[in-house]
Amino acid sequence: MFRSVRPKAQQTKGAKDPVLKSIATIKHYEQNDFEMLSVNGRLPTFKKFLYDRSGEKCTSAKLATAGFCKHGKKDEPDAICLFCGKVMSFDPDDDPWEEHQSHCPQCPFVQIGKLDETTWTVDDTIHLLSALVTRSKKEATLQLTRELSSMIETMTQKLSL
Ligand SMILES: [Zn+2]
């Protein structure tokens, strides 16, 4: 699930109603998009990453620098690019930036091609933040639409009984 990669996702767990939960998720994304723009926001999502322990080439620092956040279960080497939404499963000797470039040539982060954030122009920053916000809101809105459709279906079934 997309939101599981966000470090503060527990904020949305309190809501039991699926629609309220989806709305909370949208608000959560709004609060965290700016944070995820930076490698310092993405790196903490890889807490106790599988390949960091064994001293492999594909480290959490390299993954975060290449635009990725942790995705999926703790013991799996999966990561997601929040700019293009690509989920990838990495091998210990992978170079995350090379993999990102070869699998996602259309990704806005890949197209800008500047791993060092201090070299970003204002236009680069706006372009990347815009990609993040658009992607995360689209994801959350789709989830909300699914929840509402499910509710309507359930209500329709109850009314027809
Ligand atoms: Zn990407």
UniProtKB/TrEMBL annotation:
Q: Which domain of life is it from?
A: Eukaryota
GO terms assigned for molecular function: metal ion binding
User: Sorted alphabetically, which InterPro entries does this protein's record hold?
Assistant: Baculoviral_IAP (IPR051190), BIR_rpt (IPR001370)
The record's annotation in Gene3D superfamilies points to: Inhibitor Of Apoptosis Protein (2mihbC-IAP-1), Chain A
Keyword entries, A-Z: Metal-binding, Zinc
What is the name attached to this protein's record?
Uncharacterized protein
Instruction: Point out the coiled-coil segments of this chain.
Output: none
One short Pfam family name for this protein?
A: BIR
Per its UniProt record, what SUPFAM superfamilies does this chain match? Inhibitor of apoptosis (IAP) repeat
